[in-house]
Design goal:
mainly beta, nine-stranded antiparallel beta sheet
Length: 133
């Protein structure tokens, strides 16, 4: 976990796991000194997790974080923001021992052991910063 209280960043877009529930987790696509990252603000606890692991492919921008160790809480999280930036995002949770941490295309990241076995949760886009020229 990173102490996000000391970070200077701007919010590019905001997603919610449930757009109606005020206590639902919030996911903010943020710009930190020119680099995109994803910040998870967990439900009503206001706990924040910064996902700086970032790569881009045909599906869009991917952000990931994982808990290191051998406990049953050692899960990985991956968020996918579609290329057009105007659609809902997808959130994948990879359970303990269901993923490996490997380097692909120069990025160390979680990779599920069996693709297609884990169904994503849709995150609703609730706001997006207008791009300026």
């Amino acid at each position: 976990m990173v102490d996000t209280t000391q970070l200077e960043y701007s919010v590019v877009a905001e997603y919610r796991s449930d757009p109606v529930d005020e206590n639902a987790a919030v996911y903010q696509l943020v710009n930190i000194q020119g680099n995109l990252a994803m910040m998870e603000i967990a439900d009503s606890t206001s706990r924040q997790m910064l996902m700086e692991t970032h790569w881009v492919d045909a599906k869009g921008d991917h952000f990931a974080a994982w808990v290191k160790g051998e406990s049953v809480h050692s899960l990985a999280l991956e968020l996918v923001i579609p290329q057009d930036g105007c659609a809902h995002a997808l959130r994948y949770v990879y359970p303990h021992k269901q993923y490996d941490i490997i380097e692909l295309s120069g990025v160390i990241r979680p990779v599920p052991k069996q693709y297609g076995q884990i169904e994503p949760t849709e995150l609703t886009l609730v706001s997006r910063q207008q791009e300026t020229e």
